[in-house]
Amino acid sequence: MNYFPGAAMERVLQALGTNSLNYRSSGGGYEAQCPVHDDTKPSMSVKQGNLGAVIFCHVCGEEGKEDILASLGLKKADLFDQPLKRPERPQVVATYIYEDADGNEVYRRDRREPGKDGKSKDFMQYRMVNGRTVYGIKDIPRVPWRLPQVIAAVKDGTEIFWNEGEKCVQALEKIGQVATTAGGAQDWRPGMAEWFDGAAKVTIIADNDEPGEKHARKVAAALKGRVRELRIVRGAVDRPKADVHDHLAAGHTLDELIDITDQRGHLRSVPPPRDAAPPVDGTSARQPEEQPQPAPAQVGLDLTDTFGLRGCKAPFGYRITPKGVDYSTGKEDNPWARFTYAPLVVTAAYEDPDGEQSVQLSWTDRGRTVAKVIARDIAKRGRELVKVLGSAGLPVIEGDSRAVERWLAEFEATNLGAIPHEKLARNLGWQPDGTFLASPDSGTKLEVRYDEQRVPAEAFGMAGDFEAWRQAIARLEPHRVPRIVVAAALAAPLLHPLGLDSFTVDVSSRSTKGKTTALQCGCSVWANPSETASAISNWRGTVFAIEKRLNMVRGLPTFLDETMAVSDETIIDYLLYQLPMEKGKDRSGGYAGALPWQTILLSSGERSILSYTRNQGAAARALCTSEAPFGEDGDAAREVHDAVFANYGHAGPRFAELLRKGLAREGGRDRLRARHRELAVQFRGDSAMTGRRAPMVAALALAEAMACETGILPYEALPTETWKRMFAGASPTDNQPEMAMDTVREYLAAHSHELYPGRATDNRPPVRGWLGATKERDGRLHIAVLPERLRGILADAKYSLDAVLDSWITSGYLVEAMDRGKPTHRPVVKIEGRPVRCFLFTPAAVGDERTEEAA
Prior knowledge:
Layout: H1 7-18, E1 23-26, E2 29-32, E3 44-48, E4 53-57, H2 65-72, E5 91-99, E6 105-113, E7 122-129, E8 132-135, H3 147-156, E9 160-163, H4 166-173, E10 178-181, E11 201-206, H5 210-223, E12 229-234, H6 244-249, E13 258-259, E14 298-299, H7 303-307, E15 318-321, E16 324-328, E17 336-340, E18 344-351, E19 357-365, E20 368-375, H8 376-379, H9 382-389, H10 401-414, E21 421-425, E22 428-430, E23 436-437, E24 445-446, H11 451-458, H12 466-473, H13 480-491, H14 495-498, E25 503-508, H15 515-523, E26 536-538, H16 543-551, E27 553-554, E28 558-561, H17 569-578, E29 600-605, E30 622-625, H18 634-646, H19 651-664, H20 668-682, H21 688-709, H22 720-728, H23 736-750, E31 755-756, E32 772-777, E33 780-785, H24 787-796, H25 801-810, E34 817-819, E35 822-824, E36 828-831, E37 834-837, E38 839-841, H26 843-846, H27 848-854
Parallel strand pairs: 9-10, 9-11, 11-12, 14-15, 18-21, 21-24, 22-27, 25-29, 25-30, 26-28, 28-29, 31-32
Antiparallel strand pairs: 1-2, 2-3, 3-4, 5-6, 6-7, 7-8, 12-13, 15-16, 16-17, 18-19, 19-20, 22-23, 32-33, 33-38, 34-35, 36-37
């Protein structure tokens, strides 16, 4: 077989010609006759892809590709320009045995090179049971490697080195040190910290990258208070991912490890002389004794007046002026060298609930003060700092990045007691310490993880007057749908104490009936509901973008308007399923791999949100109403709309504070849950579906009742019977597939003349072409329908074939056939003697009477 760019395309075109099939150029590729069916009008496309030729028949679909290749005398390999290379088989290059305190084997880790999926290495963890390999150690307590040596070192007061990886441990052992590891960064377990209790000194050596330093700080946080002296360092090899093995292999000593501990006394304090270039390999900048001594520290501006820092001073050997920061060269002719071009200092330090630290850097720019919060590990890497904050006006050039790195570290170390150290929140809503953050102005510093979250987060806040908001919301009393939306907005903080999963409340009706206004009323409970504030978004966007919006809150509502704006209907299907899981799917690891949330999603659109999903279980994850929110009362909608735009953000924080105080009382959580259970029993209904929805309905009813009892809402709570009528009764939307099947049945009954062989004596096709055919199997009539016609029938009725197909198969509505050894639900049937793939409905789907009538 020949291999060159376009070789696969040439092979396909040659096969088409050999089989007397016509093809012609079209849209950068070719359109051709399909060899599988009678194709007078070319229905197959042939295009050049990244790896070779791409063929697709719009009649046969993806399932027919194997038939097409077989008819052309081709194999799948013929579609590739180059042969696919088989990856090199992983080989075990080292086995590391983990032992307990008595030296007994617990489990093993194999280092394999190369690793799977193109990685340079990977690791396989397993245990030996009676000489048999049992993969996976999920249920086994993890222990540090070389645990017996660690225990002995703790007893003897010997320094212990913690590393990321067994290879680094072995490198340190070669020079006579005691070292240990958990394996990879993901293998650390907090329980390992107890083995270090009473240790004299533990030095944690971080890999030279962001994950490596995060891992080191996580270990340090767990060991804090357990050991007498704790340091975090990194190697002197200034290369991404470089570790202590690389450090030692490059000829460096342990004295040349770079200290990155956030404590006074562990940081280098002598800046480099002006004529010495900043070290590029990360080695220490200590100066020989014969070098001139640096000048004392100088401060030429008021740090309190400029940055609000009281009691702060410059470290020895530096001076700070309105023009920038200088270091002392020790030379008489030119004693100072500038490395920032405006004053630059650390003005605050923060720690988030996961123990990750951030710092606030501040500088002056044209008479104003600029403040930016960044991860601490970025502040420790000068070049990365310039890259991240350069566009924000950081007064530093890359050539001075190492000097800036040292300056910030030494400034903070010198002023630890004066620089504010505060807690940092990463999301709105419930915090790990039990507090509730209703807005960025609630007192706790909020630093969201993504820039896309910043604007919607800032929309959460107050404006206007609480009493004016109550007067506006009073107009909702006769309109139960907007009242339910307001109740849902208030109910979001209840999810956490009640132990409920996130769920959806959907309002659907034709346009101009106040759906968006209802959402704006709910939004005004917590935030600015105007279009420009971005607290309410729409369904347009990617899954990841919407997950970032969800990730912004834990116990606050999320608002997505206009389901019709969604670019891909599968996005709604996915999110309806994923929302109760309260985290997205993994994306390449790290925090962004699985974004967590806890929310009630408030959605609106002209179609029910359930019409977008193929998952029948989605009906149990959403409370849906198609009732017009304001009916014909347009005046009420307009008045409420204008009022909540001017007065918002008061009710939610009041409700959250009352809830928090109630939970803090003895037995408060138990009383809240008991009241919720009582309501849920009343809303169970008569089916399994209503029973699954009952806890969600009870949460909304409970939130409204609590808000009415405390005067937050200006009306009486909806009666139990109203909630039952809205959500506790059986709904036809509980069975979308059956509703879609009813649509198909009705269409077939009305268009039976379009089913081959038809009613005409000469079997002439109808004007629109054949809809399908009637077929007799086992003495009973079946109906075959062309795929595109079926999709059109369902689309006209606002259903998706993909959304109901699985349920139809489960219900036995479609014939399953074997095609080349594989099952298919699109068997080949003949219409006018031509083989065509169709969906073949069973008598159970369309009913014997309908089938016979159609025949």
